Amino acid sequence: MTVTLFAATTNPGKLRDFSVAAAEGGFLIQSPSKFEDIPAPLENELTFAGNARLKALYYSRLAPGLILADDSGLEVDALGGEPGVRSARYAADAGFEPRGTDGNLSVDERNNLYLLSRMRGVAQRGARYRCALAVARQGALLLAAEGTVNGEILAAPRGTGGFGYDPLFWIPQLQFTMAEISLEQKHALSHRGRAFRALLPSLKQLTD
Known about the structure:
Structural class: alpha/beta
CATH class: Alpha Beta
CATH architecture: Alpha-Beta Complex
């Protein structure tokens, strides 16, 4: 029997990543349409794990079933771990408006341009993607797991797949960015794939 996990996100990129990971373990990922009408909680924790727990508990009190929540983002060594938990709001937090653009940039494009501006002239470009997952039901936290993948930040974007900082995130062992690999490759080595696989044994015990 296929078990459904209700993902506390409407981000199509995250839903796609989690769906690939979940299918391998015999789970189905859905994002209830009602989540679009629920005001999002204030993500004010200092860690990815803290924000994942916060979201899982929040949505589990408002919707039935097993709620899967994540918080994930990029940590750049030369920037002291930035953007970290503020990855999705990196450029907005800084009030960054890139020159020579028409103002119609997406959030991801603006974040990438801001990151490139912060990394200009930086030689050490090590970074990692980090993902924290939490599963809750009816206001009780049931499971949690984390996953990371190490890489480097390029000086210019490459690839059209993925989302977020993927066009800048270079994977040395593959010689590709996260935006240049297939969904299957991404699941095999990405932070979300690794976090979900870490969660899977306990998740199966929970739902057997």
